[in-house]
TrEMBL record:
Domain of life the protein comes from: Bacteria
Record key words, sorted: Membrane, Transmembrane, Transmembrane helix
Protein name, entry field: MFS transporter
Chain positions covered by the region annotation Disordered: 68-104
Transmembrane annotation, as ranges: 20-39, 45-63
Organism of origin: Streptomyces yaizuensis
Amino acid sequence: MPRPRPCPRTRTRPTAAQLVLGSATVVFSTPALLLLTGATGMPGIALTGCVAMALGLLVALVLPPARPGDADLPDSAGRPVPAGYGAPGARSVSRPGAAGPPGR
């Protein structure tokens, strides 16, 4: 049986940034909404929590997903530079007692 082709309108998995910002929105908006509304009863607190969750979901969905080439870095990014590969135009410094060029 052939595999069904995915619908082109389906969303991809959420990125780490979407998850973090959505969660942070829920965490920070819940106490703020509780303080603003002054809710003390169970129904008010539950409604405030639901509103905060909906706000966090909205923030996570509105944030644009990462483009395929955003995380691509050059191969040498983060790797140490091998010895002898200094900056362009840098002068090499000889150590005392090190072997110099012949004929000196």
